[in-house]
Write a structure and sequence with these properties.
Diaminopimelate Epimerase, Chain A, domain 1; 5-stranded parallel β-sheet
Length: 634
């Protein structure tokens, strides 16, 4: 069932695919708000059998039963700590790689090892373990390398390490290649059983699991480190699915962030003004993670590692300010590239391209991934941005519209690429300039093939209808119980109708602040990047997240608006490819009109003899959807 006529600030008409009706007998006699119960039922959760596990996940199985080389790996690392060996932790320059690196550096240093982090330069070296890094490690007489969030595809580097007699432990979550790895051990979620709760771990999750196993063997309290905090930051930053171990550990770990003793973490959250609140996955995703990523995108990622491992208050203060300055510069560059990319994308879109490939050699290679994601949001098409790297070749970042697996698309283009890797939703590659045009055509052909029977219309799927008077602190507290929110457990999208704009003004950056009233109550709302034209006293329907706004130490619930449509008392419902118009009559009954102009109402006072028994059953079905569409049911 779809509400079809929705203009938005994007370049598509966006449908709202409204949720299925829920019978009242499906509502359980439990201490959970009815509207939130409906959200969970629609997500396939059995309230009688699964709710307790969902809210308070049970203990996880012994990881050594799921990773067959974990015991061997743990013993080798403990041996290195006991012997005070030098260990190289080879990470990556994004937030997942940085947090993984710091997590192990901190723990293994406390356990007696001499630990040195190695992070490649995004601009000069590109992603992952490389031969230059191995040469440097060998020169330091280091005989143990632990990779985090990378290494699985570093064939040349692995071979060089073998030649030097260096033990290599790879912990990674990127796709395992189809060739034998000559290494000491591999800890990878692909190697776990199909139903393993560890299947969804990001790079930092694997590092955290390894750290927990080491501490268990040594009877060492992991809480003496910041490992749990780094796990939370890296997991959310890498958009790992919040299922299994990720959900359990994140739920347990989030409350520990703002009581962390790590001076770098404390400094960051204080400067972000989130040190006095319960930090959520949204705070990580939109505030903490972009700050960490900005350093790796624009500068030396070792700066952020230094921040997280430094005990000098003066150094931490200076490093924090440097990181925030980099993030400010990242925002400025992102805005400029986005404007330029949008012009190219519009032209490509008008030419009916189904895979947008946007090229400018002057763009900053560290920023193009962010912009690619924003172009996808606007056009709902897979998008690649390419910029020239320091070596003269071009680096590309791809983001998917979740209807095409971009890593598999790159596999098909292997003959055109120097290197590539990534996930189904996001990937990267390097390419010679002369092959870019051929890549454009090949990716577009792949997209045309994959999208042949796919509806590319941008759509929104609200979880439940809610009246503004029902949005209160009690509801919000229960909402946090069914979190944390992220991939595979998204924050519920609510919607409501006929909101009158009592007040409206623009904020810096094209954001809109409003006060809305739906006839039951008033509430503040914000629309980010809200270029839609609205005026005071307009009536609108809104889809939104419920969140807390903190301003000058005051906490207040507000709506974070995702989409807006101008209110119309008549709504078009699409059911089985047929359109039915529905509206509320003056006496608050529902009136349904089909394409032939035939009508019936919810009290059947307006109905025709043309409805036979089968049609009456279908009419009730239409009415149940209309109740949700018109806000008569949640």
């Amino acid at each position: 069932m779809q509400d079809k006529l929705l203009k938005t600030v994007n370049y598509h008409i966006k449908n709202w695919i409204l949720p299925k009706p829920i019978n009242e007998d499906e509502i359980a006699n439990i201490n959970l708000n009815n509207t939130l119960q409906k959200v969970l039922i629609r997500r396939g959760i059995n309230l009688n059998n699964e709710l307790d596990e969902y809210i308070t996940p049970s203990e996880l199985p012994n990881p050594e039963d799921h990773f067959n080389e974990l015991c061997k790996t743990t013993q080798r690392i403990i041996q290195a700590c006991n012997r005070k060996e030098q260990i190289a932790i080879c990470g990556d320059y994004d937030a997942d790689g940085i947090t993984s690196t710091v997590l192990l550096v901190e723990l293994l240093s406390l356990l007696g090892a001499r630990v040195k982090p190695y992070i490649p330069s995004r601009q000069d070296e590109g992603y992952g373990l490389n031969v230059n890094m191995i040469n440097e490690i060998n020169n330091k007489k280091t005989k143990l390398i632990i990779t985090v969030d990378n290494g699985i595809s570093a064939i040349d580097a692995i071979k060089k390490a073998k030649d030097y007699g260096i033990d290599v432990i790879i912990t990674d979550h990127h796709k395992i290649p189809n060739y034998q790895l000559d290494i000491f051990s591999l800890i990878h979620p692909e190697r776990t059983p199909s139903d393993s709760p560890y299947k969804y771990l990001a790079g930092v999750g694997i590092a955290y699991l390894l750290a927990k196993n080491i501490c268990k063997k040594l009877n060492f309290d992991l809480n003496r480190t910041s490992a749990t905090v780094f796990f939370c930051i890296g997991t959310v930053a890498d958009m790992a699915p919040l299922k299994g171990a990720n959900r359990k550990w994140l739920k347990e770990g989030l409350p520990k962030i703002n009581i962390s003793t790590n001076k770098g973490i404390k400094s960051i959250i204080k400067k972000l003004s989130i040190d006095k609140i319960d930090i959520t996955s949204e705070d990580i995703g939109y505030k903490i993670a972009p700050l960490i990523n900005a350093v790796g995108r624009l500068g030396d990622p070792n700066l952020i590692i230094d921040l997280f491992t430094n005990e000098s208050n003066e150094s931490v203060y200076k490093l924090t300010n440097t990181c925030f300055a980099m993030n400010k510069e990242r925002k400025r560059i992102t805005s400029l590239i986005e404007q330029e990319a949008l012009e190219i994308a519009l032209n490509e879109y008008k030419n009916d391209r189904k895979f947008l490939v946007l090229v400018n050699k002057e763009w900053h290679a560290g920023i193009i991934g962010i912009v690619a994601a924003r172009i996808v949001e606007k056009f709902n098409l897979p998008t690649a941005l390419l910029a020239e790297a320091n070596d003269g070749n071009f680096r590309g970042s791809i983001r998917s519209n979740n209807k095409l697996k971009v890593n598999l698309a790159l596999d098909e283009c292997n003959d055109l690429l120097i290197a590539h890797g990534g996930h189904s939703a996001a990937a990267g590659f390097s390419i010679k300039e002369e092959n870019i045009q051929r890549l454009m055509e090949k990716l577009n052909n792949i997209a045309n093939r994959e999208f042949e029977n796919v509806n590319l219309t941008n759509s929104l799927k609200p979880d439940a209808y809610i009246r503004l008077k029902d949005i209160n602190q009690d509801l919000y507290e229960q909402l946090t119980l069914i979190g944390p929110f992220g991939i595979m457990n998204p924050a519920p999208i609510f919607w409501t109708r006929k909101c009158k704009i009592l007040d409206i003004y623009k904020l810096k950056g094209d954001h809109i602040k409003m006060t809305l009233n739906d006839g039951t109550s008033s509430i503040d709302a914000i629309k980010w990047n809200g270029s839609i034209q609205l005026n005071k006293n307009d009536l609108i329907d809104v889809a939104f997240y419920i969140e807390v706004n903190i301003w000058k130490k005051n906490k207040k619930l507000q709506l974070n608006i995702i989409d807006i449509k101008i209110h119309n008392k008549i709504i078009d419902l699409q059911i089985h490819n047929k359109i039915y118009k529905c509206q509320l009559t003056d006496n608050k009954k529902i009136l349904i009109t089909n394409s032939k102009g035939q009508c019936f109402s919810s009290d059947l006072s307006i109905s025709s003899e043309y409805l036979n028994a089968k049609q009456r059953v279908f009419a009730k079905k239409i009415l149940s959807f209309a109740e949700i569409a018109l806000g008569k049911a949640s």
